């Protein structure tokens, strides 16, 4: 093929608007959704960008004055495992379950879409969301490339008692955990989708050497440790063409990554509480049924001297920062009066 760019790859499930009105993507992020016609003039008013619409005259008055925006329902890859819609009468759920993130781009904290008004449920594989041009997958003329996306799991459930309708979400979460335990699926017949006995594993321990904090080596507690295509430290955050495999270390810094596709990788990591990115200096080859013990690894965070004062925690999250109340003219009721961890200065 000639040279070309690939911006987005996804599966979109468009459900019946007469049936599926209740969206759920997390325990604290679920609600009845507006109607598609509420988003178009004169019922809706486009705001700063087309996806954000102020509902000025919705079909159902309860939504008047809210802002609907599909990006309000985004989440990080590592948390994007189950989402979908519930039909309230009869009580039926439609859920899209993603047991593995290995085929997604940008690493575990890359954000992407889930479900939104229409009603639409998305299985996102590649996208430029929240990254722009850095996530455009570029191919040279004649370049050969192959990648397996999915499989994703579509789950339908139901209950007889309408009073138990919202239990469909809890059931979907339980099913998600079962599907994660079944990965990699054994039914896939493609030779490009390796089964469990055709994959390998890697384990080791990550320590932190920060003399400004401790004279002893520190365990990299809760570190994000992953295998991704070769590149510079932190390059996994913009990587689009290959596969990535991530885990979190335990309290002592030990980690284990299972079911890795055969291939050549670099090992990357970052440790909550410490700035910077870690990259193991040697390349790692994973073969079928291999179990690589990489031993103890040492991360030395970049420093110019002792920390004098600090705002926030270097954990690639803004969870501890103050989130101001929204302008009452531009709200989404889903995010009103939610308990938040707020650091006020």
UniProtKB/TrEMBL annotation:
One of its GO terms (molecular function) is catalytic activity. Coiled coil: none annotated. It holds the Pfam family fn3_3. This is Lyase. GO terms for biological process: carbohydrate metabolic process. PANTHER family: RHAMNOGALACTURONAN ENDOLYASE, RHAMNOGALACTURONATE LYASE FAMILY PROTEIN. InterPro entries: Carb-bd-like_fold, Gal_mutarotase_sf_dom, GH-type_carb-bd, Polysacch_Lyase_4, RG-lyase_II, RG-lyase_III, Rhamnogal_lyase. Residues 220-292, 307-345 form the Rhamnogalacturonan lyase domain. The keyword Metal-binding does not apply. Keywords: Signal. It comes from the Eukaryota.
């Amino acid at each position: 093929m000639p040279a070309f760019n690939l911006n987005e790859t996804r599966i979109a499930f468009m459900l019946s608007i007469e049936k599926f009105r209740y969206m759920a993507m997390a325990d604290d992020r679920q609600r009845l959704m507006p109607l598609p016609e509420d988003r178009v003039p004169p019922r809706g008013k486009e705001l700063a960008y087309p996806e954000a619409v102020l509902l000025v005259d919705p079909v159902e008055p309860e939504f008047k004055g809210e802002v609907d925006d599909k990006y309000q329902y985004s989440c990080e890859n590592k948390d994007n495992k189950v989402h979908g819609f519930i039909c309230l009468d009869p009580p039926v759920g439609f859920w899209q379950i993603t047991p593995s993130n290995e085929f997604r781009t940008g690493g575990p904290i890359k954000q992407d879409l889930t479900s939104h008004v229409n009603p639409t449920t998305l299985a996102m594989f590649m996208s430029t969301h929240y990254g722009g041009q850095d996530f455009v997958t570029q191919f040279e003329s004649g370049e050969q490339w192959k990648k397996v996306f999915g499989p994703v799991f579509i789950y339908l459930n139901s209950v007889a008692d309408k009073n138990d309708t919202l239990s469909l979400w809890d059931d979907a979460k339980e099913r998600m955990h079962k599907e994660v335990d079944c990965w990699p699926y054994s039914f896939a017949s493609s030779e490009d989708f390796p089964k469990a006995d055709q994959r390998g594993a890697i384990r080791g321990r990550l320590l932190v050497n920060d003399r400004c904090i401790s004279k002893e080596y520190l365990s990299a507690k809760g570190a994000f440790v992953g295998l991704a295509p070769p590149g510079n430290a932190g390059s996994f955050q913009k990587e689009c063409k290959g596969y990535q495999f991530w885990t979190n270390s335990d309290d002592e810094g030990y980690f284990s990554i299972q079911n890795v596709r055969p291939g050549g990788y670099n090992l990357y990591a970052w440790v909550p509480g410490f700035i910077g990115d870690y990259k193991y200096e040697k390349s790692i080859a994973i073969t079928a049924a291999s179990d690589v013990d990489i031993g103890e690894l040492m991360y030395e965070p970049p420093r110019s001297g002792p920390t004098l004062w600090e705002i926030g925690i270097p954990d690639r999250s803004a969870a501890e920062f103050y989130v101001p109340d929204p302008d009452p003219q531009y709200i989404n009721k889903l995010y009103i009066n939610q308990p938040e961890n707020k650091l006020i200065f």
